[in-house]
Design goal:
single chain, alpha/beta, 2 domains, seven-stranded mixed β-sheet, about 25% helix, binds NADP nicotinamide-adenine-dinucleotide phosphate
């Protein structure tokens, strides 16, 4: 089990801007005093932290939808934590909260930075997974942009992951034929046998991806939820149906690339199919998170959405958890368990 110091704050800092795959030495563990909350501020102790693909982008010094992490700054990230001191009305010691507090044992949050969680919703780590950013990404990305209809074929990549697994299950709820791609036979078995997908493709061993998609999607592809980009996306584009909708959610196959791959070149298929491709960013949907959480929560209660977590223990292991997730060694939502709640 992890041991969290009571009177010191461990922090994982960005030590270098990695070229290619991040290494453990791309990060540095530092220790300092536990910060003091000021007026209207709250001191939070981390319990779970999330490691997510977008963090690879923040390690680069390039213009994006969010500013880069600076060298020697704490790694960003969503945290579920416990309030240990509060100078803010509405939050009390012992409350379980969600916030972008970063890879550290303790953080001070300003007004508006925390979201109080309902402790009856267990496990509390769901707020970082199916009921949090990844689940909401699946919900709004698929339903708003993808608009899946009964009987249509939906393909989702990184299908066993935090976002992909929820996308596929929502598409099943909407009556679609659902095809997932994933990087191991165990993941393909999981999406088919546990999550009820109609077909699965191990993109690492399938050989000819186009032939594998033809076999799995005999009626073509109406909706593609793209988490990975690269050759798989090219193969999907060649098989889109008229009026297909493509949700560009992630391009993880490119995140470690020093030079982005060329492509896609086969855009003529969009003319043939009069199809649409749209980039998606979850923060655009912040005003509707409650709606998404309510729907996802009900589907979990009804047994229509299952989830899987992959939990690594110890704040000091956050870099390891991040690196293994980027390599596809995670099986389910990758989390880091930092400490248990006090009560
Ligand atoms: N736009 C947004 O607002 C938004 C929000 C959340 C997430 N996302 C994106 O959604 C995607 C999934 O995120 P997640 O949190 O659910 O992560 P995840 O799927 O739980 O974990 C990442 C997975 O990506 C796959 N992967 C890694 N390298 C790959 C490669 N070269 N080619 C194909 N697949 C590869 C691996 O699965 P396999 O074993 O199957 O390869 C790995 O398990 C990411 O691209 C992320 O950036 C976007």
């Amino acid at each position: 089990m992890s041991s969290q110091p009571a009177n010191a704050n461990r922090q994982i800092l960005l030590a270098e801007r990695p070229s290619g795959e991040p290494r453990e030495s791309s990060f540095r563990l530092a220790e300092g005093p536990v910060p003091d909350p000021g007026e209207d501020e709250v001191l939070v102790r981390s319990l779970f932290l999330s490691v997510d693909p977008y963090m690879r982008g923040r390690m680069r010094d390039v213009k994006s939808y969010a500013p880069p992490i600076q060298l020697d700054e704490v790694m960003v990230g969503g945290v579920v934590g416990e309030v240990v001191r509060s100078n803010q009305s509405g939050l009390e010691t012992g409350d379980i909260v969600l916030g972008m507090l970063g890879w550290q044992d303790y953080a001070v949050a300003k007004p508006g930075q925390l979201h109080k969680l309902d402790p009856r919703i267990q496990p509390i780590s769901l707020a970082l997974g199916v009921l949090g950013m990844p689940g909401l990404t699946a919900y709004f990305g698929l339903l708003d942009i993808g608009q899946p209809k009964d009987g249509e074929t939906v393909v989702v990549s990184a299908a066993s992951g935090a976002v992909g697994a929820v996308v596929g299950q929502i598409a099943k709820i909407k009556g679609c034929r659902v095809v997932g791609t994933a990087g191991s036979d165990a993941k393909v078995e999981y999406i088919m046998n546990e999550l009820g997908f109609d077909a699965g493709i191990n993109y690492k061993t399938a050989g000819n991806l186009g032939a594998a998609l033809d076999a799995a999607c005999p009626a073509g592809i109406d909706v593609y939820f793209d988490n990975v980009g690269g050759p798989l996306t090219d193969a999907v584009i060649a098989r889109i149906n008229e009026r297909a909708r493509l949700i560009i959610c992630g391009q993880i196959s490119q995140y470690n690339a020093e030079k982005p791959e060329m492509g896609p070149r086969n855009l003529f298929h969009f003319i043939r199919a009069r199809a649409r491709m749209e980039g998606f960013l979850i923060f655009d949907h912040a005003a509707r998170y409650a709606e998404g959480q309510a729907a996802l929560g009900q589907w979990i209660v009804d047994g229509k959405i299952k989830y899987r977590e992959d939990v690594m223990d110890g704040l000091e292991n956050a870099p390891k958890a991040f690196i293994r997730m980027l390599r596809g060694e995670n099986f389910g939502k990758q989390l880091v368990h930092v400490a248990d709640p006090s009560a």
